[in-house]
Amino acid sequence: MNGVHDMGGLQGFGPVQLETDEPLFHAAWERRALGLTLAMGATGAWNIDQSRAARESLPPAQYLGSSYYAIWIAALERLMRQRGLVTADELAAVHQGTVAAAAAGPALRVLRAGEVDTALARGTPVSRPAAGPAPFAIGDRVRARNLHPPGHTRLPRYVRGHVGTVVGVHGAHLFADAHAEGRDEAQWLFTVEFSAADLWGPQGDPRDRVSVDAWASYLEAA
Amino acid sequence: MSAGHDHDHDSDHSHLGEMDLRVRALETLLVGKGYVDPAAVDRLIETYETRVGPHNGARVVARAWADPAYAQRLADDATAAIAELGYSGRQGEHMVALFNTPDVHHMVVCTLCSCYPWPVLGLPPVWYKSAPYRARAVIEPRAVLAEFGVQMPETTRIVVRDSTAEVRYLVVPMRPAGTDGWDEARLATLVTRDAMIGTGVARQP
Fold this sequence. Notes:
The structure holds 2 protein chains of 2 kinds.
Chain A: H1 28-41, H2 48-56, H3 60-65, H4 68-82, H5 88-95, H6 116-122, E1 127-128, E2 141-144, E3 163-174, H7 176-179, E4 186-195, H8 196-200, E5 209-215, E6 219-221
Antiparallel strand pairs in A: 1-3, 2-3, 2-6, 3-4, 4-5
Chain B: H1 11-32, H2 38-51, H3 54-66, H4 68-76, H5 78-84, E1 94-99, E2 104-109, H6 118-121, H7 126-129, H8 131-136, H9 141-147, E3 157-162, E4 167-172, H10 184-188, H11 193-197
Parallel strand pairs in B: 1-4, 2-3
Helix pairs in contact in B: 3-4, 4-5
């Protein structure tokens, strides 16, 4: 989806705002937003790409106008609502800061405190056995295809149509676009490097390069 | 946010208060439904507040500076080399180390969201997740670096890695001169978080 989250190359946001003290969280609720999002993610009710898709498909003005963890909370509520884990009435009460008596929901795999360290250390690797040989090799010239899928994608707009060079081959990984639709499909994953001058014309420094990590179906031989 | 103190009249604060109430209500709801163990939420937060952070990555970089064989393993398979030091897992399942040289300076961004190597750097700072950094790192990295106080030599190429999949990048900055004979613990004090993102360089001794 050509959403406002796809920010590479946008202009007008002003300087990077650096903080001198850099607190990890800026309010108590941000802490809980992190913990609740990770804990609910661990139930397996959705996968990481569905979670990203939920954030990135928020209405554009809401996305741009919300702080990072406010986006997380909005997406978390949306995912739970879509899966019938919470009701619209329950969320309406939550938005008023109140909780009606919680109706029993479906049984989920609940992450217990004693399992947290192991679960985090294990993570969720997305590498998978490759079904066939890699379609590209280091040094190959490839074009990022001119794709504008309406669903979730990880191909940033600023590289589409441009030709770059394969500089990394990472084996087969779950394809994010399909995974966001609940399908496990493994594709070869590549790092493709582009010249900044090619991407940005006169605004790009001819010395510099920019890479993205791109699945095979994002690319064609050039 | 001080609990039990309701005298904020600043609209910003009342908005934050609203989010505090909303997220607290949400947690109560999810605990009531049996989806969430609040002690697990505590443990998740505590992990990233106190245990996992840039000191992990600094150990990796210091080891790579001090031990050429380790640096080679880090270059060949960063996930395995980092796991040797006990760091693995969520948001670092597929690690790649980027070695800076006088000719090439690497800088990492996630233009689409906030992808960041949690096991070695912890949670990303606000600026990393912000629109200005995500938008500008790819189109004007030298201007962004200047805002971080970093001026690259004319002859240094900037390579920006946009982490758009699950590969997570750790930048290995150049080892500062004048550190011959330093042990790993002392070397690690020179490795800043920004140097491991590529928006900084290692501290000079």
